[in-house]
């Protein structure tokens, strides 16, 4: 009998995934990860890891599977949280959930599972895996989850073939309402428990408060860039030019108010600016951490919110399917997303000596350096990279 160790998070998804694995005839062992224990930065209504562990224990008992716990908080702090701090300090917008999957759930966690004799490692992600043979070699395809409202393949966009080879996603082919129904039918304690929100394993946080553990608050100006600014720009169609984020100077606009630190903001952000009476909503269109200036634009259609292309350097490029990697001067049409739950967008991936460009059919809103761009061929995730 094949042995599967499943990450039990105390949520309904991993609970039902554990049940389905038992139904499929696997020997199932639950493993709960403690990754964060600093409650001082989470919002008071947020669940703690002790709550999560209690639910994981109740479900494991109900399903009659053993549950082990492992403390990975040191790994999580150094590999995920420190990375977050470093990225925000540079004025970039990281995605900790993508990092958490690459560095924790499918790396050190897999090592812990192998210590328990696991043949496979399972999670409650809404995505699917298919193993095929290509040119005599076993190749693992990472596919979108069957539920379009819950597809979580984007969060796994940095996984390697080796990591995917060990992974099972038992609920990837069913819809969320069905997962809830199964949990209720089984009388699982997690059946009506709300889905977790916020930063992976940390929970819901006030981001500036969280970042102030390491990054100092520093008062600076919020400058509004008027739409008229773009009328005088020479618009080039050169790939390098259209993939760059807009750069502004204080003199290009007018100072509206102040902020508490440019590194606490991200492109496309609307909340937390504390600017009222402007008629139209204000959005962050650029941040300058060196000068400590936040640039904003008025209205949903402000030109500063949109870019036609993005750039990914060679060293921040990752192919989930290395056999499909493009060589220099090659290009291919893909469906692309730059954030979780964004509808897939048509774009062309272009390989150049300095790195990779993605040029979109329609200009994209809120492209932020540090985010991950992921590209798909129909419903298969092919690769990803960090936006420059």
Q: What keyword list fits this structure?
A:
Elongation Factor Tu (Ef-tu), domain 3; Rossmann fold; alpha/beta; 3 domains
Description:
The chain is an alpha/beta fold and 388 residues long. It folds into 3 domains: 3-210, Rossmann fold (3-Layer(aba) Sandwich), CATH 3.40.50; 216-305, SH3 type barrels; 306-386, Translation factors (Elongation Factor Tu (Ef-tu), domain 3), CATH 2.40.30. Helices cover 23% and strands 29% of the residues. The protein has 8 helices and 18 strands. The protein has helices at 12-23, 49-63, 73-89, 96-115, 161-165, 176-186, 207-211, 239-242; strands at 3-7, 27-34, 67-71, 120-122, 127-134, 137-144, 167-168, 220-224, 254-259, 282-288, 293-298, 306-313, 317-319, 331-337, 345-352, 355-365, 372-377, 380-386. Strands 5, 6, 12, 13, 14, 15, 16, 17 and 18 form a 9-stranded antiparallel β-sheet that branches. It has a 5-stranded parallel β-sheet with strand order 3-2-1-4-7, with helices on both faces. The chain is globular. The N and C termini lie far apart (47 Å). The mean pLDDT is 92.
